[in-house]
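tokens incoming
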């Protein structure tokens, strides 16, 4: 897994291109050499960003995180895998944004009627009489897809976390559900359910205004409150393959706390073509933030050198090893031939020579 901060030196600094653009923004395609780079990281929410696969690339190693929910929202999903690709193919990257929410350190800061959900499907939080009574929006999903405007073409999805319920101190609601997890339950009623592989999460049903169910690619909206003074809003659902359900509003009345419910998280998704995949939830104690996507190109083996069709020259056979032989045997020296008459004289008249002759024969 790639540490998030360790990825930053390779970032495309896409924030200047993506902030405020939304999903409908158009961007020039990244050059082919970008796909061949060892690592490509986009951390700024937005998209889609075209990504052109390099000429020698056969697969992409992907790591992606969904946006976290706002106002103590749930954590975004974390998905990894090896995605098969073809050279020249164009894919599209979308990074989920963190859900909107108030700043506990500056509660008097200006705020909208309701805080928005994160880019790419996060559901908006419910409205309230003040920022402290408003809930957080759900986090947006991060994904990689084959068509820029078709969410059904998504190959890998990291769901967004659900938005936290509104309130402070006595009014405080629970945190949003992590990706794939339900939201916190209200005091009297049901909790928001997470998105799944086949359906959106159901909305929470509490004592006040209800939100909406999650749907394909979109988290449900958080419910507000029918009471304008002591009403507290429910959190928005996180985006995902299917979005999480929105939370329901609550109130504080007569010393009783009718807590609102938080939004549920959206679901992760991994296409069947992806191998070596993992699907879970991001962790850590760092503050909530946008998602990210990291892409590493996997190249095919280098072709053999030389002209097409050339083959390596044959290896000559090893020379034969000579077999050792015994040294040649000297031929016996031939004895001189003696005429018979001389032999008879030697035997008869020369005894000393006779012994020599007998030894010779």
């Amino acid at each position: 897994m790639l540490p998030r901060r360790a990825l930053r030196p390779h970032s495309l600094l896409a924030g200047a291109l993506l902030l405020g653009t939304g999903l409908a923004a158009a961007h020039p395609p990244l050059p082919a050499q970008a796909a061949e780079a060892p690592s490509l990281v986009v951390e700024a929410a937005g998209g889609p960003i075209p990504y052109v696969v390099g000429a020698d690339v056969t697969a992409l190693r992907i790591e992606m995180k969904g946006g976290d929910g706002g106002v103590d929202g749930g954590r975004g999903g974390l998905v990894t895998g090896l995605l098969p690709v073809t050279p020249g193919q164009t894919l599209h990257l979308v990074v989920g944004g963190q859900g909107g929410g108030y700043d506990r350190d500056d509660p008097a800061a200006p705020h909208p009627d309701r805080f928005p959900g994160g880019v790419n499907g996060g559901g908006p939080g419910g409205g309230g009489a003040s920022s402290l009574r408003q809930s957080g929006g759900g986090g947006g999903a991060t994904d990689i897809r084959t068509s820029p405007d078709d969410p059904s073409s998504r190959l890998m999805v990291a769901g967004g976390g659900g938005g936290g319920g509104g309130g402070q101190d006595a009014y405080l609601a629970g945190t949003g559900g992590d990706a794939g997890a339900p939201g916190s339950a209200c005091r009297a009623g049901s909790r928001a359910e997470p998105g799944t592989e086949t359906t959106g999460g159901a909305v929470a049903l509490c004592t006040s205004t209800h939100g909406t169910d999650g749907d394909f690619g979109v988290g449900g909206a958080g419910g507000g409150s029918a009471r304008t003074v002591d009403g507290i809003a429910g959190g928005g659902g996180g985006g995902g393959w299917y979005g999480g359900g929105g939370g329901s509003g609550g109130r504080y009345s007569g010393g009783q706390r009718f807590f609102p419910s938080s939004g549920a998280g959206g679901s992760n998704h991994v296409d069947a073509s992806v191998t070596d995949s993992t699907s879970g939830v991001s962790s850590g104690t760092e503050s909530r933030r946008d998602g990210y996507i990291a892409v590493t190109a996997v190249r095919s083996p280098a072709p053999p050198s030389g002209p097409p069709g050339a083959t390596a020259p044959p290896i000559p056979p090893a020379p034969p090893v000579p077999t050792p032989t015994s040294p040649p045997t000297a031929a016996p020296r031939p004895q001189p031939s003696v005429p018979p008459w001389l032999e008879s004289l030697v035997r008869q008249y020369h005894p000393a020579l006779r012994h020599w002759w007998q030894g010779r024969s």
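note: The chain has one domain: 34-102+114-300.
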